[in-house]
Amino acid sequence: MTAPVFLRADVAIEPTVHRFYAWLHALAPQTAALQLANAKLPILESFARNPAVHAAALKRPEMRGGPFLDLPASAAARIGTLAAELRDEAAPALELAQAIGELGALLQAEGQGASLEALYARVPEPLRGLVELVYDPEHRADFRFLEPLVYASPHYDRGAQRLVLRELEGDARAFVLSTPRLEDERSLELALPFDSEAARALFDGRESGRPFEEWAELCGVDGERRARFERFFTDVTPRSTHVPVPAGNGGVRVRYLGHACVLLETRDVAVLIDPLLGYPSASEPPRLSFADLPPRLDYVLITHGHQDHFVLESLLPLRSRIGTLVVPRASGGWLEDPSPAHALRAAGFANVRELDELERLPIEGGEIVGLPFLGEHGDLRVRAKLAHLVRFGQRSFVCAADSANLEPKLYDLLREQVGRPELLFLGMECDGAPMSWLYGALFRTAPKRAHDQSRRLCGSNAERAWSLVERLAPERVCIYAMGQEPWCRFITSIEYTPESAPILESDRLIERCRASGVACERLYGSQTVV
C-alpha cells in the first residue's frame, strides 16, 4: 500500500470567491455581489488600463490598504483577461448587484411615507421573495434581506469558491482586499467549494494523511498539474507541539498568538478568540501555529466580521477541532450587517452559536459573556460585533478587540454587570482606514470626502483607552490587535514606524498605566501571558 502523505505545515490554503480572498463580505451573496461590481472589477480594469498608477500609490505606506492592485505591470494583460472572464462567469452576481441598486433607487423615489405594499410588485426580479420593504421610525424607506433564503437561492454560488494552495516565501503576500489570488509557479487553484468533502479532507490534511494518488483523485488534479500538486505534500508524519496546561499555575493559561488571536485554556476547556495563525517559519518573530493548538477547541469566538478577525484561512483548517463556534448576533438582514452565523453555516461549520450583548454562555468551570463593542465600524448600522469576557471561576479575562471608548459611561455600567477583570486585551489601531475602503462598495451614494475621512475604522487612542482602563480597573492591560506581526500584513497592510500614531498612542497608555500601578505591555509575536 502506498504510504500516506500530509499537507505541508508551511503551505497556505487561501479560500477565494470569484478569485478574490474570502472574508465575510465575500461569503454573503448580497455584499459579495456589490463588492465585485463596485470594487473588485473596477480595481482590475483600472490596473489593466494603467498599472503605473497602482505601483505609484503602493510606494506610499498609507495607501497600501487602499484600492490598488499589487502585481507587476507585466500582469496588466492577464488582469484585463481576468476582468473580462469575471464579467461573464459572475454575470448573475452582477445582475444581483444591479438589482440591489435599482431597489434602493426605487425606495428613495417612491418611499415617501405611504404604504410600501404596492412596491413589492416592482422589486427587481433577482430580489423577489428575498427582501422585506420597511420604514425606519423617521419614515425613511429601506429594505432588509431574508438571509436564510438568500443562501438557499442560486445567488449563493458555491461554484465561485476556490482553494489556492500556496508555497509561502517568508511572510510576504499581496494585500487581500485589492489583489486577486492567481496561480503562479508556487501555487495551484482547486475548484473546491468550502463545504465539500474534498475541502474538508484537505484542510485536515496537515494531521490526516492518505496516499498521494488519493489526494489527486479527491481534489480533481490530473495532467501536468499533478507534479505541482505533489510539491505541497510531505511523507513526514506531523507531530503536535501543543503542551497541556500544567498543574499548579492557577488553573488558567493565556497565550497570545499574534494580532487579536488569544488562546485561553484550563485542563478541561480551550477557548480560542479571533484565530489568525501564521505558518512555521525561521523568520522573526517566533510564532505559534496550527500544531501548537490543542486537539479540541471547545469554543472559538469571533469578535466581528472584518477581514483580520473573521479569517476563513485560519477557521477552515480548524473546522474539525471546533466544538462551538460563537459569533455576534447580526441585526437581521441589513445590507451593511451580514450575519456571520449564516455565512459560516453555509461554509460548512456545524455548531454555530450566536451570542448577544450581555448574554451569558455557560462553559465548564465558568462562562462567556458578550460585551457591547462600540466604534471601528464607521458609525454604520452594524450590530454583529462583540467583545468577550471569559470567566474561569473567580478569574476573568476581557478581549475587547478594536473597541473604541466612545462613551465612557458604558464601561461604568459594564463594571457593575461583570466586575473587575484580571486582564484586559485592548486594540489600539487608532489610525484606521477611511470607512469607504471597506464599505464603499455597499453605498448607493458615496460619502463626502470630509465625512469619509472623519468616519475612520479606528480603535481607541491613549486618552480613550485610559478612560476605559480606569472604569474596568483590570489588574493588567495587554495592547494587541495592532496588525504588526509580519504574517498578518497581507490582511492588515500595516507596517508601523516608531513615529506611527498607534505606536505613540500605545506608548502613552503604557506609561500612564505603569505610573498608576497597572501592569501594561504591547504584545508582539507570540507569548504566554498568564
Keywords:
530 residues; globular; 2 domains; seven-stranded mixed sheet; alpha/beta; Metallo-beta-lactamase, Chain A; 17 helices; 22 strands
How would you sum up this structure in a few lines?
The protein is of the alpha/beta class and 530 residues long.
Number of helices: 17
The CATH homologous superfamily of the largest domain is called: Ribonuclease Z/Hydroxyacylglutathione hydrolase-like
CATH class of the largest domain: Alpha Beta
- Uncertain regions spanning at least 5 consecutive residues: none
Characterization of this structure:
This protein is α/β, with parallel strands linked by helices and 530 residues long. It folds into 2 domains: 1-239, no CATH class; 253-528, Ribonuclease Z/Hydroxyacylglutathione hydrolase-like (Metallo-beta-lactamase, Chain A, 4-Layer Sandwich), CATH 3.60.15. The chain is 30% helix and 19% strand. It has 17 helices and 22 strands. It has a 7-stranded mixed β-sheet with strand order 14-13-12-11-10-9-22, with helices on one face. The longest helix is centred in the first third of the chain and has 21 residues, at 29-49. It starts with 5 loop residues before the first strand and ends with a strand. The mean pLDDT is 94.
